[in-house]
């Protein structure tokens, strides 16, 4: 086993998103956000509830009392951030990845002046982190945007939203330039293919564009918004680093049949497309044919390609949870998959309770592939296991399964670093239990810190340390040696 591979300033920590932890959705001038409209619906447990259609949106706005909106309450980080940050510090976090709620700063997204109370909240959070020697890493937009921008512009379908985003980013860079040096633009930007509302504020039925045309046009606008934000960040905070963030969908061919391998290549391209543009600063060759085959024509302005070139990111970050198996689709043309559910089972892998295949070696493969392709530093923005924890009579949570999952993944990350891959940080997803993104449930827990709250908001919200808490503390203290 390889040891002591991590650089001594390696950034260990955890990652969260504003919409999944803050709560206080209507306090201190915050405007409604897209994430406030996602409900918990027990159903048969199979449907994701985070992409909202127009009919549902109208209904939720008219009759909010009929629905359970867990992301509106989060885990009350808004009032408990000091206690939570103290616990992160106790584990020895070097970095804390978090996002800012856009509608806390610009309630509708269209104001020209920011909401001071919103800005002041994040000042307090950053001060608290820095007092504990934890470096903040901020995602500008993590699956939420002002709802008003959806209702008025259909989100990033409209080019006008770019200017609103860049104004928001500029306000943050200026305000926090001395406190925050690490940034990311859009969380899992490639998820627009499966979740256009959550990712881009786009509702398909409100558009005249065909499905793919709409998704790729919104993508283009987000590319431009991201590139302009990167440029501003460099101008305003010269010693900053700003990255992109992709949901890495590592694909294996189901067999050695060339047609299966070809399908895997196509699926890979749909995933790489996003990082190709954001890291290399240009549209990759393989999209030309896809756009032709699907009659997709991206509307661009004269200097768009130059903006992309000018706004390449400093590093690439990714979430890694699982791998996928691909099979030839016969006569069907290649289609972007982007599915969050692995439809073809990999017989060699076990799965989480939510059916997500567990593949630590795939993590090493993905890190090597990405570094091979891009040669830029990598940051692991998310990795972790969602599980149903059981609280024992004495209040303890013995989450050995989480320790197993994380230690196996960190071990493979260590191997990748030994392979020569430049990885400069690792933040586990949800170091404290939070509201799940895809299903808005509380029972899918990722944390080292248990939060006493159920899917319906019952509970004391008290925080307690799980078994994995001390384990991660030891991982950080030994710089990844003791897993
Ligand atoms: C990523 C998101 O897709 O996966 C997070 O960036 C999300 O916001 C995480 O929480 C895990 O997904 P889920 O649905 O289990 O919360």
From TrEMBL:
GO biological process annotation, one example: carbohydrate catabolic process
Keyword Hydrolase: yes
Highest taxon above the source species: Bacteria
Residue ranges of the TM segments: none
An example Gene Ontology CC term for this record: cytosol
Alphabetically ordered keywords of this record: Glycosidase, Hydrolase
Gene3D superfamilies named among the record's database cross-references: Glycosidases (3.20.20.80)
Annotated PROSITE patterns: GLYCOSYL_HYDROL_F1_2 (PS00653)
Presence of keyword Cytoplasm: no
Single GO MF annotation: beta-glucosidase activity
Family note: Belongs to the glycosyl hydrolase 1 family.
Listed name of the protein: Glycoside hydrolase family 1 protein
Source organism per UniProt: Vagococcus allomyrinae
Lineage start: Bacteria, Bacillati, Bacillota, Bacilli, Lactobacillales
């Amino acid at each position: 086993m390889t040891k002591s591979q991590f650089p001594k300033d390696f950034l260990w920590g955890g990652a969260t998103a504003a919409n999944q932890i803050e709560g206080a959705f209507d306090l201190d001038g915050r405007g409604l956000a897209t994430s406030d409209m996602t409900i918990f619906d027990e159903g048969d447990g199979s449907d994701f509830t985070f992409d909202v259609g127009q009919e549902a949106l109208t209904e939720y706005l008219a009759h909010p009392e009929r629905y359970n909106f867990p992301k509106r309450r989060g885990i009350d980080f808004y009032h408990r951030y000091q206690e939570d940050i103290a616990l992160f510090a106790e584990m020895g976090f070097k970095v804390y990845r978090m996002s800012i709620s856009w509608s806390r700063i610009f309630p509708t997204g269209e104001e020209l002046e920011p909401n001071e109370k919103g800005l002041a909240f994040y000042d307090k959070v950053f001060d608290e982190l820095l007092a504990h020697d934890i470096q903040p890493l901020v995602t500008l937009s993590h699956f939420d945007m002002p709802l008003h921008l959806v209702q008025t512009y259909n989100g990033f379908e409209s080019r006008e939203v770019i200017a609103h985003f860049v104004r928001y980013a500029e306000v943050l860079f200026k305000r926090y330039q001395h406190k925050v040096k690490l940034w990311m633009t859009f969380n899992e930007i490639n998820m627009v293919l499966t979740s256009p509302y959550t990712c881009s504020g786009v509702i398909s039925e409100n558009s005249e564009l065909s499905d793919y045309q709409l998704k790729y046009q919104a993508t283009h606008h987000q590319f431009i918004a991201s590139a302009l934000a990167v440029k501003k960040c460099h101008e305003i905070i010269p010693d900053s680093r700003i990255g992109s963030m992709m949901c890495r969908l590592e694909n294996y061919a189901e067999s050695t049949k060339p047609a299966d391998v070809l399908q895997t290549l196509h699926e890979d391209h749909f995933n790489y497309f996003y990082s190709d543009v954001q890291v290399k600063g240009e549209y990759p060759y393989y999209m030309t044919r896809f756009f032709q085959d699907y009659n997709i024509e991206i509307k661009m302005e004269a200097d768009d390609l130059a903006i992309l070139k000018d706004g390449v990111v400093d590093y690439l970050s990714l979430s890694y949870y699982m791998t996928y198996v691909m099979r030839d689709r016969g006569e069907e043309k290649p289609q972007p998959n982007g599915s969050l559910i692995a439809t073809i089972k990999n017989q060699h892998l076990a799965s989480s309770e939510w059916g997500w295949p567990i593949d630590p070696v795939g993590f090493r493969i993905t890190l090597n592939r990405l570094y091979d392709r891009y040669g830029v530093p990598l940051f692991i923005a998310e990795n972790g296991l969602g599980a149903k924890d059981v609280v024992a009579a004495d209040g303890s949570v013995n989450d050995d399964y989480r320790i197993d999952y994380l230690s196996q993944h960190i071990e493979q990350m260590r191997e990748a670093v030994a392979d020569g891959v430049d990885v400069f940080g690792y933040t586990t997803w949800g170091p404290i239990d939070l509201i799940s993104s895809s299903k808005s449930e509380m029972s899918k827990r990722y944390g080292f810190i248990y939060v006493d709250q159920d899917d319906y908001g019952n509970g004391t919200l008290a925080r307690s340390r799980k078994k994995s808490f001390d384990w991660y503390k030891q991982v950080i203290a030994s710089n990844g040696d003791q897993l």
